[in-house]
Amino acid sequence: MSEYGEFETGYESGDVEQLHTEAGSEQDYQSDFGVYSQDSASAESTDFETGKHVEYVGADGSRYESTDFTSYSHDEAETNSVFAAEGSEQSSSSEYASIDALRAQFQSAFAEGTQISDGGHGPSIAGH
Predict the structure, then answer these.
(1) Residue 114, Ramachandran bin (φ over 0: left; ψ between -120 and 50: alpha; else beta)
(2) So what's the pLDDT on residue 114?
(3) Which of the four, 54, 66, 118, 121, has the lowest number of CB atoms within 10 Å?
(4) C-beta of residue 27 within 8 angstroms of C-beta of residue 93
(5) Closest C-alpha among 86, 126, 104, 95 to residue 28
(6) Which stretches of the chain drop beneath a pLDDT of 70?
(7) Backbone torsions φ then ψ of 64, nearest 5 degrees
(8) Count of alpha carbons within 13 angstroms of residue 44, beta-carbon side
(9) Is the pTM of this model over 0.70?
(10) Which residue from 117, 125, 102, 84 is spatially nearest to 16, judged by alpha carbons?
(11) 28: number of CA atoms within 13 Å, CB side?
(12) Residues forming a β-bridge with 27
């Protein structure tokens, strides 16, 4: 120890770095399909026929013939059908990214002394 005591000085510095990253994505897809159709058809046919047949033979041996006839025909057909169709399609996509950065810097200086004395003749200085 010298007559002036001990005296110390110093300097400190430091860095703090923090990095936070976040990323993501999302995709959606949806499809709906359906079909609708309706069809109907019909057909109808009617036939009607009448007739008369007469035959006659004369002079020596008479002969007579008669025929009456009626003919009727009716046909009918009907069809119905249903068919359905419908559709939709959707898609979406999203992406995101996030970065948070923090940088802190600090510096400090300090001085510390114990005691400086001039042999008891003057004021003394003490510090921490």
Answers:
(1) alpha
(2) 61
(3) 121
(4) yes
(5) 95
(6) 1-7, 11, 110-128
(7) -135, 140
(8) 2
(9) no
(10) 102
(11) 5
(12) 93
**pLDDT of the residue at 96:** 84
Taking a C-beta distance cutoff of 8 angstroms, is the pair 52, 66 a contact? Answer: yes
β-partners of residue 45 are 75
Length of the chain: 128
Predicted local confidence at residue 43, as pLDDT = 93
Give the CA distances from residue 43 to residues 18, 37, 47, 77, in Å, rounded to whole numbers and listed in that order: 85, 21, 14, 5
Contact 84, 36 (CB under 8 A): yes
Q: Which residue type, as a one-letter code, is found at position 89?
A: E
Q: Mind listing the pLDDT tens digit for each residue in 102-124?
A: 777 777 776 666 655 566 565 55
Determine the longest span between alpha carbons in the chain, in angstroms: 194
User: Residue type at 57?
Assistant: V
